[in-house]
């Protein structure tokens, strides 16, 4: 499968603090072909926590598409004058066809999440009516991607396990706000380490469950932005932002596959090489026997 970018695609940018959410309309020139390929793919339960089924796919043009989305995000931060440390060729992208669907709701489900280990996340909607946004009669999105602030801590993003030097570079080069937001978060929610702070943020509330896959704010989460779904629309964003899927279709059991929330999901690594690590060729190592050791 080849990703063929539409030369007449439209682009909009939404600022969330120092991060940028990219919206591309009419993304692909061959969307029908892409959708047919997705419907014919073999799906399985993912190794990740994605609430549905996924099929890995390696589309031609995938690396170029990821670099195009990254270029739009970086231009919003830096204009045309990027730091020399940033190198789009260093990005590695992976893609999945995804069907958002749960047979039953887990009691401990908290939909708001981050994509740990990924800088660039993207979702392209392969379903929906042509040319129409998935918005209900009330004007609220019935399908889409939502971005959130955790009310108690005030955090809008999260990173797990990053060392402090890396965090500084992420903040300086890519607009991460985690270190800026963390002092107020700890004042509001004093915890001795990141693990316990995360446990408080993602504490299940089985006594007051929220509507599944909705864009409604509640006592724990404040909606900052919701991009309605639209056929052939791509939404791209830094994976560290708190986000969730919005889907009325996924709350019901679809009667046929035409009603599925079908997307092309992409992930990209940071476009930077952090260090020049030495490479040891096989000839660099001594034979055990030369050191008086057994093999």
Compact overview of the structure:
The chain is an alpha+beta fold and 295 residues long. The protein is 19% helix and 23% strand.
**Count of helical regions:** 5
CATH architecture descriptor name? Sandwich
Protein structure class: alpha+beta
- Percent of sequence in beta strands: 15-25%
What's the domain count?
A: 1
Overall pLDDT, averaged?
A: 88
The percent of residues in helical segments reads 10-25%
Which descriptor suits the 3D outline?
globular
Query: What order do the strands of the largest sheet run in, or round the barrel if closed?
Result: 1-2-8-5-10-4-3
Topology of this protein?
Layout: E1 10-16, E2 19-25, H1 31-39, E3 52-57, H2 62-78, E4 93-100, E5 120-125, E6 143-150, H3 164-174, H4 178-188, H5 194-201, E7 221-228, E8 234-238, E9 243-247, E10 262-268
């Amino acid at each position: 499968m080849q990703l063929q970018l539409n030369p007449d695609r439209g682009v909009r940018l939404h600022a969330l603090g120092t991060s940028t959410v990219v919206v591309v309309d009419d993304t692909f020139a061959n969307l029908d072909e892409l959708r047919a390929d997705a419907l014919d793919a073999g799906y399985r339960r993912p190794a990740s926590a994605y609430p549905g089924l996924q099929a890995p796919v390696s589309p031609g043009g995938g690396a170029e598409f990821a670099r195009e989305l990254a270029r739009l995000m970086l231009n919003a931060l830096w204009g045309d004058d990027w730091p020399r440390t940033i190198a789009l060729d260093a990005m590695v992208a992976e893609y999945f066809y995804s069907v958002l669907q749960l047979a039953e709701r887990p009691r401990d489900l908290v939909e708001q999440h981050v994509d740990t280990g990924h800088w660039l996340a993207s979702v392209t909607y392969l379903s929906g009516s042509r040319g129409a946004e998935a918005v209900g009669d009330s004007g609220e999105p019935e399908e889409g991607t939502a971005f959130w602030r955790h009310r108690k801590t005030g955090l809008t993003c999260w990173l797990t396990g990053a060392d402090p030097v890396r965090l500084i570079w992420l903040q300086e080069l890519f607009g991460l706000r985690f270190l800026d937001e963390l002092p107020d978060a700890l004042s509001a929610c004093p915890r001795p380490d990141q693990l316990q702070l995360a446990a408080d943020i993602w504490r299940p509330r089985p006594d007051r469950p929220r509507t599944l896959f909705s864009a409604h704010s509640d006592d724990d989460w404040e909606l900052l932005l919701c991009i309605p779904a639209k056929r052939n629309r791509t939404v791209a964003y830094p994976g560290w932002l708190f986000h969730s899927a919005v889907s009325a279709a996924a709350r019901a059991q679809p009667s046929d596959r035409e009603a599925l929330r079908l997307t092309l999901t992409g992930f990209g690594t940071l476009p930077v090489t952090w260090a020049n690590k030495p490479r040891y060729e096989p000839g660099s190592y001594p034979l055990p026997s030369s050191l008086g050791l057994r093999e």
